[in-house]
Design goal:
- By secondary structure, this protein is α/β, with parallel strands linked by helices.
- It has 3 domains: 2-42, no CATH class; 62-280, Alpha-Beta Complex (Spore Coat Polysaccharide Biosynthesis Protein SpsA, Chain A); 290-372, no CATH class.
- It is built from 14 helices and 11 strands.
- Strands 3, 4, 5, 6, 7, 8, 9, 10 and 11 form a 9-stranded mixed β-sheet that branches. The protein has a two-stranded antiparallel ribbon with strand order 1-2.
- Helix 10 runs parallel beside helix 13.
- The longest helix is centred in the first third of the chain and has 20 residues, at 24-43.
- It is globular.
Length: 387
């Protein structure tokens, strides 16, 4: 990746004072000067872009070529001064072939009672017209186009995080719709919290949520927890940077719990805040299919290798493989939703146990890397997804 470390200033920082009375000629000169500053600011926009594809014979999609040139329609939206002296917040979203959902998502972001200062969408080479729709209908969006679709969610999110120069970052899936006061509520909450609160994880409403989960008391109470929902969470940008963002080797799934352990090891906490909420298009529980099963199992091993004591790893797997001690669904903690239904997915996936074995072997192949990064988490909020 190439990184340009220029940090743009606001127009007022560059010497344009909108409150000073001016003559007509001076106003025209100021307007011309201000436009020149805007053009300069945009050219200095801090960017983190993917490296060119190295796959032989690869041809980028037409939209990558089409949008390679400068887009002047966005200049009026970029690099605006912080509003009303409040902390700034950017929305970071990764999209892939979910055009209709992305449109609903961006409409909800635009309708916030307290607006986002920046909206960054990293598109993983969608071919459903998503990039064109974003450019045409949402000129305020800072769109980053990946040259091919073989990047993992962890890497593409990290590209978005590194482009955000705001105080806070909203980590969003492409198929969510935030309540209209999501920014207002989460900003007010995190500012009122101690500085050790690094993340505000909001309530998520998903298709297929069972009654035992919807009525679970832990879903509806504020509490500190061991992980966050990666589809709708507000995070301190400097903490994400300090903790190294997502582990890109995870590729997809389980990356939130790994990052959470590093956040807690750095002395921070994660607050569940159900007052702010969103609709999520992905059904409740673990996603079915061989790809999901493989990455969930492999990444669970890596998470354990990196952050959990050996005796706890043994205890964890005894609970999982011993039916007598395995927790029932109604006992599942509200923050352990990522692995709910894993045994059903194994049974319903063709060759499920063979996939589990392959994922386990791949995990142990990566054991030396995990062991080099190993730091057991002893934070009081830390908890294994055992329930």
């Amino acid at each position: 990746m190439s990184v340009t470390e220029d940090h743009p200033q606001s127009i007022h920082d560059r010497g344009v004072d909108a409150g000073t009375p001016v003559t007509t000629g001076e106003a025209h000169a100021a307007s011309t000067h201000e436009q020149a500053l805007l053009d300069g600011l945009r050219s200095e926009l801090r960017r983190v872009i993917p490296s060119p594809p190295t796959v032989a014979g690869y041809t980028p999609s037409p939209e990558v070529e089409r949008f390679a040139a400068e887009d002047t329609a966005r200049s009026e939206w970029l690099n605006t001064a912080p509003r009303d002296g409040r902390p700034t917040v950017a929305a970071v979203m990764v999209s892939f072939n979910k055009k209709e959902w992305v449109k609903k998502n961006l409409e909800a972001l635009r309708a916030q009672t307290v607006p986002f200062d920046r909206v960054i969408v990293v598109d993983n080479d969608s071919h459903d017209g998503s990039p064109a729709m974003i450019r045409d209908e949402f000129p305020e969006v800072d769109l980053i186009l990946m040259p091919h679709s073989r990047y993992g969610a962890c890497e593409t999110f990290n590209i978005g995080f590194k482009n955000a120069d705001t105080d806070f970052i909203a980590i969003l899936d492409d198929d969510v719709q935030l309540c209209e006061d999501w920014v207002e509520l989460t900003l007010a909450k995190i500012v009122a919290e101690p500085p050790t609160t690094a993340m505000i994880s909001t309530r998520v409403v998903e298709p297929g949520m069972p009654d035992w989960f919807l009525n679970h008391p832990e879903v509806h109470q504020e509490r500190y927890m061991a992980t966050f929902r990666g589809c709708a969470t507000l995070a301190r940008r400097d903490v994400l940077e300090q903790c190294g963002y997502y582990d890109e080797a995870f590729f997809i799934y389980g990356n939130e719990r790994d990052l959470s352990a590093r956040v807690m090891n750095a002395g921070y906490r994660i607050l569940q805040y159900p007052t702010a909420w969103c609709h999520h298009g992905t059904p409740f529980g673990m996603k079915a299919g061989p790809r999901s099963l493989y990455y969930h199992v492999r990444n669970l091993w890596w998470y354990l290798f990196k952050h959990v004591a050996v005796w706890q790893i043994v205890y964890f797997f005894l609970l999982q493989v011993t039916p007598k001690f395995r927790a029932r669904d109604k006992e599942v903690r509200a923050d352990a939703v990522g692995t709910i239904g894993i045994f059903s997915v194994i049974r319903e996936t063709r060759g499920g146990w063979w996939i589990v074995l392959k994922a386990t072997l791949a995990a142990f192949w990566g054991l030396p890397r995990c062991w080099r990064q190993r730091r057991i988490c002893h934070h009081p909020d830390f908890a294994l997804p055992t329930k």
